[in-house]
Amino acid sequence: NIFMYVATMAVPILLFDFFVARKEGKKLSFDFSTKPFRIYLLIFPMMMGMMMVADYTTQLIPTTGGFLGEVYKMYTDQFAKLASSPISLIIMTVILAPILEEILFRGIIMKGLINNKVKPVTAIIVSAFIFGAVHFNPWQFAGAFLLGLVLGLVYYKTKSLLMPMLLHAFNNGISAMIMLYSESENFSDILHISKEMVLVIGIVVFAV
């Protein structure tokens, strides 16, 4: 799984490097600079707020009956197998995914759109949509799209790819811990509050 995942993410990055960047006489490089501590105090709560909004949104998508029920079963079975190996889960979701996916979706796709005179808002939305679509199921699409908006916004504002990488790892790390140590995947069940309250708290935290 890890090998196939790395190949899936790395191939388009390498193809872009060889056939686009080098063809234009450029070298594929990214800004991984750190930022003042106050920036982290802003972006991590903002990410947490959107994670709660995304959690509410994904709960609106049916998980039983018909086509969606079958897809959800395949989705949960796949993650159950991955969770059976905690080390592999952490390596793939908390280390590899934030690095490779942020390079591809923010560092190449979003930055490339902006460099080609696409409006930043449009570039953020398009990169977030593609980011969600490659997860290949409606529950992760909804969550990844919303979180992708935050990742894109943070990258655009800070110009450092390290920032969305850290936020991506933060989100995936929490998700991995929930997967490994909780019987539920929803914040409402874990916190023993209604999903509507999760939504309200998420919006308030994000807005602040």
N to C succession of SSEs = HHHHHHHHH
Beta percentage is under 5%
Mean pLDDT across every amino acid position: 94
Note the main sheet: none
Q: Radius of gyration, Cα only, in angstroms?
A: 17 Å
Which structural class fits the helix and strand makeup?
mainly alpha
The helix tally amounts to 9
Please tell me what the overall shape is.
Answer: globular
Number of strands: 0
Distance between the termini: 39 Å
Spans of 5+ residues with little confidence (pLDDT < 50)? Answer: none
Helix content: over 70%
Furnish the topology, listing elements before pairings.
Blueprint: H1 2-21, H2 37-59, H3 66-83, H4 86-115, H5 120-133, H6 138-158, H7 162-181, H8 187-191, H9 195-207
Helix pairs in contact: 1-4, 2-6, 2-7, 2-9, 4-5, 4-6, 4-7, 5-6, 6-7
Question: How would you describe this structure to a colleague?
Answer:
By secondary structure, the protein is mostly helical. It contains 9 helices and no strands. The longest helix has 30 residues, at 86-115. It is globular and about 55 Å long. The model has no long low-confidence stretch (mean pLDDT 94).
